[in-house]
Amino acid sequence: MNRLAKEKSPYLLQHARNPVEWFAWSDEAFEKARRENKLVFLSVGYSTCHWCHVMERESFEDNNIGKFLNEHFVSIKVDREERPDVDKIYMTFVQATTGGGGWPMSVFLTPDRKPFFGGTYFPPDSRYGRPSFLQVLEHIRDLWQKRAQDIIASANEIQLRLETAANHLPAEGLVLTDAALKNAMAFIKQMYDPRDGGFGGAPKFPQPSFPRLLLRCAKRFHDDEAVQMVLSTCDRMAAGGIHDQLGGGFSRYSVDAEWLVPHFEKMLYDNAQLAQLYLDAYLVSKKETFADVARDILDYVLRDMMHPDGGFYSAEDADSEGQEGKFYCWTHEELSRLLSPEEFNVAAAYFGVTTEGNFIDHSHPQPLRGLNILSIKNPRISDEDKSLLVSAKDKMRVARAKRVRPHLDDKILASWNGLMLGAFARASRVLGDARYLAAAQKNLRFVREKLWDDTAKDLFHRWRDGERDRVELLAGYAFYLDGVIELYEATLELGCLDFAIALADAMLAKHFDGRNGGFWQSPAGAGDLILRVKDDYDGAEPSGNSVAVLALLKLNAITGRKDFAAAGEKTLRLFAGRLQDFSQAMPYMLQALDFWLQEARRAVFVGKTDSPRFQELLRAAHGVYQPNKIVLGSTGPVEEFARTLPVKTEATVYICTGTTCQPPTSDAKEVAQLLD
User: Fold this and answer.
1) How far apart are CA 305 and CA 555, in angstroms?
2) Contact between 591 and 539 (Cβ < 8 Å)
3) Residue 288, class by beta-carbon neighbours within 10 Å (0-12 exposed, 13-18 middle, 19+ buried)?
4) Cα 102 from chain centre
5) Distance in angstroms (rounded) separating the CA atoms of residues 289 and 180
6) Which of 142, 197, 476, 618 has its CA 20 to 30 A from that of 310?
């Protein structure tokens, strides 16, 4: 066992038996590198990363490679999900110098943490046009022995370039208008795949920020074509192999353009955002199939991804028993033995099951043959066949449950929990399911108990196995703030609003750049980093800056706190040039811009909050696709105008814009009509 045996990260623990003498990210590792005049080999990945497993099996478990690394390098292993701030710095370097990125990420650093060479996966022998990993190690070792000063000079220059790239400055004289939204809308529509749905080609990621922005823009600019692009995409994704047709939830992406063959790992952040997208699609279209997909995602999380005390786990692996997709796939023969002939005929036709199969794990030296990924190939079936399909799926679920499950990454991250908290809170009202509200409230209790220090106002990032870390990240504050605001709007509980305000105040104090705007990914005093970064890209996850802006603007609309609005506006102006000229980079922040460009429509609730009428009205307010609305009560730390509204004897709603309100109503249909 190496040093990683003492860590809590499931990813680091996976490497605890490697012959490599790994360090976690620590001052101790760099002190050793300086003392022994060695370079640092930094390996970054995550526990459910398929190609991380491949590189471990091929290289890090190899005794010869382990011996070479131990003799000539100080090796550090980082879980990019625990330390996205570390990952962001070195991934920026790798992307800038190689034109691509991904995990596993392999970077070589000087003893003072500065990068000079990097890449992603290196094979054990020369292939794919890449040198073997050992050849890379030998070459870097020789360079350090013969040209150390050149390496140091290069690393210093790279450091200066990274600092320059990270130093965002506000664009002078640039005024943000809805032109940025129009530009983004045109770009996303141009990327649309009319055959298979989605935006872009293979490999195809759901990228929920794109379709969610497109729906907002479609409402603002009355574009029915854009709506249909999103709804078609939702249909195709739900029918594809990327969607677990038996167990629910979505995989991270598909390797093809038709959503068939997924990279099988399931990430909490993907499923949280996709649940929100399918709630949007349901409200826009009123199609129950989209509501069913949202339920399918959330029920999967409740069943397989939730700690008994309420925290949400991070991810499930792609691999089972060392084979990618083995848990999820079926052979023709296996299904024919499991099901009755009638059930088999219906299920095989519905899911497109064939003898030859549709998936081979080419990354494994001995791939399994004849595997079928389930996707919906023939959705139109008779009522009689529907009952056969239901019984077939029940049998398949029972049989699959007996298989060896993929590894569960059971760490609990404040950031991703915030995304899922928001999805459960909103779904509880949109879908009228009390289980989802109970899950959201349980999660809030968990995070406040395990990750929040109420005395110091600190939100730590990771909890696992009874222990939290000491890392504070913008994404933790911003994402969880957004989720708590969603929960307040779903319940109007003052405790939620008080906690949202505490989170926002702490986020501003620790992360906001008061001079130029924007939020630093790490707080001041994080001395284990070579620079502080303002994340400016909404990828598979939205950036902390984007989520912080929208959350602060919404919280200002609820509380009237002008400092929240000022910080959001200053951050929008900092990124104005990027929003206008490179809009596809920050689709989530453009949602914040859409909110900022018009006065929020506020549904203010007065009167009895414990009555059935109140619950009916609250669901009506959430049952309308109106992305720039706010739901609030008239008591507690809410904005002043809401507190002045007359209280009625029964639960009543005022629909207000600015200081103008429609006549109060206790009719749920009228609430929906006024908001729409």
Assistant:
1) 29
2) no
3) exposed
4) 16
5) 33
6) 618
CB atoms inside a 10 Å sphere around CB 158: 18
The whole-angstrom separation of Cα 673 and Cα 676 is: 5
- Would you state the pLDDT for residue 658? 87
Q: Determine the Cα–Cα distance for residues 563 and 552; give it in Å rounded to an integer.
A: 9
Q: What are phi and psi of 11, to 5 degrees?
A: -65, -45
Give the tokens for residue 379. Answer: 């959705």
3-state helix, strand, coil in the chain (%, to 5): 50, 15, 35
Torsion, Cα of 496, 501, 506, 511 (10° steps):
110
Distance CA 534, CA 570 (A): 14
311's tokens: 């925290």
Note if the bond before 19 is cis, omega within 30 degrees. Answer: no
Please report the pLDDT score of residue 608 as a whole number.
80
C-alpha distances in Å from residue 218, one per residue of 185, 188, 223, 224, 241: 8, 12, 5, 7, 28
For residue 43, give the nearest of 34, 637, 66 by alpha carbon. Answer: 66
Can you say whether the dihedral through the CA atoms of 279, 280, 286, 290 is positive or negative?
A: negative
CB 29 within 8 A of CB 92: no
Amino acid at position 317, single letter: D
The helix (run of H) or strand (run of E) holding residue 164 is helix 148-166
Range list of β-strands (E), 46-110 = 73-79, 105-109
The span from the CA of 460 to the CA of 276, in Å, is 25
State residue 204 phi and psi, 5-degree precision. -110, 120
Closest to 278 measured CA to CA, from 249, 252, 255, 253: 249
**Burial of 191: CB neighbours in 10 Å, binned 0-12, 13-18, 19+:** middle
| Helix (H) / strand (E) containing 633 | strand 629-633
Spans in the chain with pLDDT lower than 50: none
* Residue 429, CB-side half-sphere exposure with 13 Å CA sphere: 27
Write down the pLDDT at residue 168. Answer: 81
Tokens read off for 248: 């629910």
CA separation for the pair 258, 194 (Å, rounded): 11
pLDDT of residue 322: 86
Going 277 to 281 to 282 to 287, the CA torsion angle's sign is: negative
Cα–Cα distance, 131 to 369 (Å, whole number): 30
| In contact, 565 and 517? CB cutoff 8 Å | no
For 311, the 3-state DSSP assignment is: coil
Q: Which residues pair with 208 in a beta bridge?
A: none
Alpha helices (H) in 201-267, listed in sequence order = 209-221, 224-239
**Lookup: tokens for 40:** 């640092």
- Diameter of the chain measured on Cα atoms: 84
pLDDT in tens, 295-337: 999 999 999 999 999 999 999 998 888 888 999 999 999 999 9
Chain-centre distance of CA 302, in angstroms?
17
Give the 3-state secondary structure of residue 371.
strand
How far is 676 from 671, CA to CA, in rounded Å?
A: 9
Number of neighbouring beta carbons within 10 Å of residue 501 = 19
Per-residue pLDDT, 174: 85
In this structure, the chain runs to a length of 676
DSSP E strands in 368-508: the ranges are 408-409, 412-413, 452-453, 458-459, 462-464, 467-468
- State whether residue 378 is helix, strand or coil: coil
Report how many helices (DSSP H) and strands (DSSP E) the chain contains, helices first.
26, 20
